Amino acid sequence: MSLGSVRNPPPFLDSEDQEPEYDTGDLDSDDGEEIFTGTSNKPFVSTPPETDPSSDIFSEEGSYTVQKHTAPKTNGVQSDEELDLFAEATVELTLTAPNSRGRKEIIGPTEPLSTTVNTHGKLHVANTSNKPSEEVEEEESGDTFELNIAVTNPEKMGDGMNAYMTYKVSTQTTLPAFRSKTFSVRRRFSDFLGLYEKLSVKYNLMGCIIPPPPQKSVVGMTKVKVGKEDPSSAEFVEKRRAALERYLQRVVSHPALLQDSDVQEFLEREELPRAVNTQALSGSGFLKMINKASDAVNKMTIKMNESDNWFESKLQEVENEEQLLRRLHASVDSLVNHRKELCSNTAMFAKSVAMLGSSEENSALSRALSQLAEVEDKLEQLHQEQAFSDFFTLTELLADYLRLLGAVRGCFEQRMKAWQRWQEAQSTLQKKREAEAKLLWSNKPDKLQQAKEDITEWEAKVGQCERDFERISSTLRKEVHRFEKEKCRDFKHHIVKYLESLLRSQHRLVKCWEAFLPEAKAIV
Amino acid sequence: MKGSNEDSAQSVNGSSIKITDVTQDGDTLTFAITSQKSSSSAGVCVFRTYEDFEWLQQGLFSQEDVPGLQGVIFPPLPSKPLPSTSLSQAKALKQLGFLALGDEWMIYCKALELYLQQVAAHTTLSKSKALYSFLNSSESPGKQCGKKGILNRLSQAMEEMRKEGHKDVDEFFQSERDSSTNLSALFKLSTEKFLDVVLNKQRLALACGHFSTSLHLCVNQDNPTAVAFSKICLKLSDIIEAVKINYEKVSDNDISTLGLGLDLESRYQEAKREMLFRRTCKLVELETANRNSERAKPNKKAIMEGVQKATQKEFDIISSVAKQEIEHYHRDRVSLLRDFLICWCEKQLSTARESSALLSQHLDACKKFAV
């Protein structure tokens, strides 16, 4: 749910002349700024809703306004020159400078937003405190701090079947909870899965929507391990790197998770203990878990007595949306495949024209044909880049959201389980009371004492279950709202990115044709 | 091939020949052809079917009073059109290539039109009575049985493929034959590859259409956030629709310019090869006649020498006509390809610019979207 998934693989869109190698080595510059693509953590905005009614507090309007000022006439898209993707990032980063939109970098106490917040140096999350459940609006309060994360530099360690990839996780932050402002660590894939495991154990019962990690892939990893230096394994690594980055960005954009010590440790600590038992938590294992849970819930003989229709209709909405996204994902997938096909067909055409050009006797025609071959080569590259843009901007976005919706459904199921536990506690209490009544009649004083103790115990349990259920319900409600808003923002952001890449492609296409025209006219 | 048009009452103004309409009746296509004579501005309109075109081609092949006719590079007639049903679409593509694409047979008509224009522009062929009849006679000439003339000999010759490799006596012709074989194969290959590219673009447009339609289904009015999300999806739907239309235009441009041009060039290369082959066959015939004349017994010698002299004369005329034809061919094909390439480039350039402008508008609108 991060806003800042601006990460298109830079080599492809950066300059025309670069080969589409998955060389993320370029990113390993230690100017921290370059790597961070503007994932300034907007939840920590202190603008109270009342004073800024026209935009919601996560508004991106500010960033786009600034972007317009810095952009040349071509609509923010520099088509031929090196497109410095990170120019946008630097722009967005500096947004935390005081600007009229009300986002301020505050060291001192924030404006009072809610009564229970004490903000200096700390982040408070509305979710974990006992808030009255009617407050459904977002009330993130806190200081405007920044946290930007980038995942770069995949490196292969070891060899043979024991080989694995490590990734550099770089953080740039102004949060005081961390020891320094800029730091990086190396992590491997199982570390990410381990983080997810820890988080889901902690937060699952609270109704928080935990972003799911990227999927495990035996086939992909085996190719990498075996050391095949082909484009498909490089593609796999790049896909994974991007997915890991998006995963972390989503984790830290959740206010509760950002505060979590496990998350902070993940980002900061030099060496992490090796995570075990991660097989169950990724890929098909994860999906199986979700499906098992939903099967179990469906088999529940006690139908949940829904006091609040909201949950029922929202769950239905989520399920509908999942179906929709699945369809969209399939569509985009086929689009990507067609583009890849177009790439290879264009390459073959270019080759055949090149052969023509070299065999042709008329010299001007021969030259024109050779030029044509080059134009087609450039077109092939354009198609290739567009395919990657399609893929990373759209396909992966849709895939991420499919998994996120699965996580949302998981939360609903957790709530139903909590309700079930509450009902079971109540029925046990009822039984204990009946047992006590029987004992009263049969006059066995020693057992009576035990029965009374039982009742007290179970009354407490019932109370606890009820509180848990209420809490999970209210948290879930807020989480869903937050999720939906993030989703909207995320999609809009990605569509703009996609559109920009389309526009860039078109500009370069125009240049290609403009260059070829004089060659064609020169044929005598 | 363009040559100078003689000013006679009969000659037709080649560039005025246009196919203005085509109608389909079941399996038959009927073409409306208008033309003007070079001496007047009055136009004539006739209706012809493919059989009529075949009749014309046969008529051209079988003109008997033209010396060295075998040395002429005949403008190639496109293959028979298969009105496509969904079953024969693949067949049509295989047989006609680019000419099977495009809306409503427009590309095919253009190819036929070019054929007629080329015939009318040829010094020798334009004088043929068959052409006059074809363009002016109100009755459809194709119903008559055509004379079999050279056509037969051509198909006979095709069976004797081993003559293809027969060494030539003239260096000019030998090198023409070699380069022809080479270039012809390369042009065919390029045309096929380009066809693949264009078909791929059409599939891409289709996929965009599906995606755009799926996005249109994302409408949810339950709450403000859902409304905003729906709007975003609809916006993306519009964008993808624009991408689809762009791809359709791009592939249309491809088909109507470079595709047509490559197809024409391929077929012309074939026509040239056929002419060279005919000449080679004549050469073989001549060499056989020479041998026969040498080995002839005295009583047959005179006859053999007569045959030899006649064959030699025919061969010489064919060779001289062929030489001229080849020179015209080289000049004309270059200018034809040039025109097609320029047209293609200009169309693609303008489409790319349009698309840029449209996407730019979309981008502006998107950025202003309040979420």
Keywords:
heterodimer, A: 524 residues, mainly alpha, 3-stranded antiparallel sheet, 3 strands, elongated, disordered N terminus, B: 371 residues
Structural write-up:
Chain A is mostly helical and 524 residues long. In chain A, 59% of the residues lie in helices and 5% in strands. Chain A has a 3-stranded antiparallel β-sheet. Chain A is elongated, with a radius of gyration of 28 Å. The N terminus of chain A is likely disordered. Helix content of chain B is 66%, strand content 6%. A 3-stranded antiparallel β-sheet of chain B has the order 1-2-3. The longest helix of chain B has 72 residues. The chains are: A mainly alpha (524), B mainly alpha (371). The interface between A and B is large, with 70 and 60 residues.
Short description:
Chain A is built from 13 helices and three strands. Chain A has 524 residues and is mainly alpha-helical.
Number of E-state strands of chain B: 3
Mean pLDDT of chain A: 70
Large-scale geometry of chain B: elongated
Poorly predicted runs of 5 or more residues of chain B: 1-9
User: Quick one: overall form of chain A?
Assistant: elongated
Give the N-terminus to C-terminus distance of chain A in angstroms. Answer: 59 Å
Tell me the number of helical segments of chain B per DSSP (H or I, 4 or more residues long).
Answer: 8
Structural class determined from secondary elements of chain A: mainly alpha
Helix content of chain A: 55-70%
Roughly what fraction of the amino acids of chain A lie in strands? 5-15%
Characterize the biggest β-sheet of chain A.
3 strands, antiparallel
Largest interface: A-B, 70 and 60 residues
By DSSP (H or I, 4+ residues per run), the number of helices of chain A equals 13
Low-confidence stretches of chain A: 1-142
The CA-CA distance between the termini of chain B, in Å, is 65 Å
Placed side by side, the strands forming the largest sheet of chain A appear as: 1-2-3
| H/E element order of chain B | EEEHHHHHHHH
Mean pLDDT across every amino acid position of chain B:
84
Report the β-strand fraction of chain B as a percent range.
5-15%
Radius of gyration of chain A equals 28 Å
Assign a percent range to the helix content of chain B: 55-70%
